[in-house]
Design a protein that fits this description.
210 residues, alpha+beta, 8 helices, 10% strand, globular
Length: 210
């Protein structure tokens, strides 16, 4: 089983165990909303634009609510579990495109619960996430107000944020935790953050991610 399938299966099991009303780290969303989002992302390409573009968000929201009404929570969970449709089924594409998405949303559910522990990720998955961070750091940190130096535990440095920023913050952690940090989960990532108090506060509040 590849990592995308493993994350998908574990997230689906967690959805089923917690039910539709459990909190997530996605502001305003329950597990029901997040399951609908994942199904929309993988099965309704016509509604994807609103995820990134505000003028299209109204249509995306309506499609997501329609999925909740038509499929119900158990139906959505089974669609998440069964995997994507369409071009995502091309060999290797699910692993390439969806591994990080599923990992992040799996942690959105796990870390919103009262009790949780960080997971020990396989070494090859950590390496995959680190390569993704290095390739996308300019995009992930484009809204950072400060220069950011990421230090990967186990080796590796990546730098992002505005080059001319007078303030710099150092962030140290494992690749999976740095990925969560770069995708706007700063307060919930298990990382060490160092720098001036003002710079750290500004970074922690910044809308990072795609």
């Amino acid at each position: 089983m590849n990592h995308a399938r493993a994350e998908r299966a574990a997230l689906s099991d967690l959805f089923a165990r917690l039910g539709p009303d459990a909190p997530t780290l996605c502001e305003g969303w329950t597990t029901f909303d997040l399951a609908a989002h994942l199904v929309l992302r993988e099965r309704r390409p016509d509604a994807l634009g609103g995820i990134l573009l505000k003028p299209l968000a109204g249509y995306t929201d309506r499609v997501q609510e329609s999925l909740k009404t038509r499929k119900g929570y158990p139906g959505l969970v089974e669609l998440v579990r069964s995997g994507p449709s369409g071009f995502y089924r091309l060999p290797g594409l699910d692993q390439t495109v969806n591994t990080a998405e599923l990992f992040i949303h799996h942690e959105d559910v796990r870390r919103a619960q009262r009790v949780w522990e960080p997971r020990e990720l396989p070494a090859d998955l950590e390496e995959r996430f680190w390569k993704q961070i290095r390739a996308g750091i300019r995009v992930f940190l484009r809204r950072s107000p400060v220069r950011v130096v990421l230090h990967r535990i186990g080796g590796g440095v990546a730098i992002g944020g505005p080059r001319d920023a007078p303030q710099q913050v150092e962030v140290t952690g494992r690749a999976g935790e740095l990925l969560l940090f770069c995708f706007g989960r700063q307060a919930h990532a298990k990382v060490d953050v160092s720098g001036g108090d003002e710079a750290v506060a500004r970074l922690m509040d910044a809308p990072l991610g795609v």
